[in-house]
Design a protein that fits this description.
Blueprint: H1 38-55, E1 64-69, H2 73-81, H3 84-90, E2 93-98, H4 102-111, E3 118-121, H5 124-132, H6 145-151, H7 154-159, E4 161-162, E5 165-166, E6 169-170, E7 172-175, E8 178-181, H8 195-207, H9 225-239, H10 241-248, H11 257-270, H12 279-285, E9 305-307, H13 311-318, E10 329-331, E11 343-347, E12 350-353, H14 358-368, H15 372-377, E13 383-384, H16 397-408, E14 411-414, H17 422-437, H18 442-457
Parallel strand pairs: 1-2, 1-3, 11-14
Antiparallel strand pairs: 3-12, 4-5, 6-12, 7-11, 7-13, 8-9, 8-10
Helix pairs in contact: 1-3, 1-14, 9-10, 9-11, 17-18
Length: 458
Amino acid sequence: MPRPSRALACCAALLAAALTLTACGSGGGADATRETLPAQEESAASAARRAAEEAAGGQRIGGTLNLLGVLSGPQLDAYLSSFEPFEDATGIDLKYEGTRDVNAVLQTRIAGGNPPDLVSNPSAGQMRALAAEGRLVALDDKIDLAAARRDFPGGLLDLATVNGRLYGLFYNSAVNNLVWYDPKHYDGPEPAATLQQLDAYAAELAGQGRTPYCAGLESGAASGWPGAGWVEQLVLTQSGPAAFDRWVQGQLPWTSPEVRQAFQTFGAVVTDPKMVAGGPTAVLTTSFDKSPQGLVARRPACYLHVQADFLGNLLAASVPGVKPVTDIDFYPFPAAAPGQERALITSGEMLGAFRDTPQTRAFMKYVASPAFGPMVAGTGQWIGANKQTKLTAYTTPLSRKAAEVYAGATTVRYTAQNSMPLAVNQAFLKAVLGYVKDPGSLDAQLARVDEARRSAAS
């Protein structure tokens, strides 16, 4: 397969549940979102090359690494650019295979005895299951484990740890469920401090005949994931981290009041034609990357959109004339009540190896190095998972702002849908779609997901 262009991307990253963006289109382009910092980029690339040389033990190893992942188009170009110093220093040729359904393709490849050398997977739940089955290579003696514990958030390492051994490293992190708006049209609280304040503003808009929200759930095999993001954010915000953790671990039934409340709060927006542009039919049929365009239309179709940190750069790249901060900005999802802390949910892609070779060892050591984080940040799309990544490494104002929110948060959890077993994740997405289509089916939808939870636990 021909190698894609290495120009840095103009679209935003997809960070949950086998997500991929469509092509950016014409208009703003990369220059609309990315600041020019040539000296910084040269320094970051040089440091990354040195880290790659050290990861390879000073040897030019050569050979090929096959990497399976979810990306395509311009965002794949950005992703691959972060590995250029590694390829240049080691002589290893990284060949990427992209698919919209990484979970199914990976299972098929494994069943056929032909797994890839590496996978970049948004589903931490699937990765944990593969590690438990003995499919993944343990990294404890392949990388500097003490340095990894120092440099990566403990929660991300915990997700990649099974039976006391580390099986993966996160390529990136993203802040999910930010509240996006166009400053030219938005006249609400900046920021909304509580859900009550946000709901009051939305009700005020609806009362004036202005539709508060845009939303879109269509995403191919992963359709439903944006709604699942709302639900999990609401479980964390309304019921707290302890309930959220029990839910993710399969200890809190889906029919519980905590989960039901989250679904109903989500449904109060997306099943009400007065609250969401186009009503529930449009929510179900509009793709997640097209739905926010109503925010920045000359005559706005909506004034609020809940989405991850990639949204602003996506709009600036795909809608002519849209400029970050001036035309699109965000604030964190509000707290449940006055005096409570905001709670963040993050997502990302976990890298794991199926074969223990000199190439995979060098690759994982490179990813673990602090020098790799600025390469991720420098794409203008992602937050570097490594905590050593400085804010100055970010080349877009919205990415820098999201990284600042990430760094300053005290209550942070990884996305529930991608932490759960694959069967539960898939049932979750189906329940979201089924509920939006028929709000009266909520009991049946939750019962079906709870059945998947019990089956996964048995």
